[in-house]
Structures are given as structure tokens and as C-alpha cells.
Write a structure and sequence with these properties.
single chain; mainly alpha
Amino acid sequence: MEKADLTLIEKHRKDNYQLDKLFKEHLELKERIHKMEGAKGLGANEEKELHLLKKKKLDGREKLEDLLKELR
């Protein structure tokens, strides 16, 4: 995420519930994905979960981007 986006998020997240919620979800998913990618020998179920987490993160990122466009 670009620094300008992070600055915009920090500026508006206190007053924008949706922005705050999406950003918190983004950070949580980022952390979960990072932990899973660091694990050795993921099984088929973990690989599937990792794929779903990445998709959910991307979907959330797109929604976050839409909100940021309105704020720019």
C-alpha cells in the first residue's frame, strides 16, 4: 500500500467506519497470510485456506481502493 494511501486512511478512519473496518480486515488478513506462507509443509486444506484468504484480501483491497477514490 502506498504511503499516500496510508496517510489518507489514517486521516479519515476515525470518522469513516467502513474505511476503518476494511483497513483492520486488510491488516488482519495480511498477517494471517504472512504466517501461513512462512509455515513449512502446508497441507491441501491449508493451501486452499491460504488461497481463500488471498482472494478475500484482494476483494477487500478493491473495496478499500473505491473508498479512497472518493476521499481523494
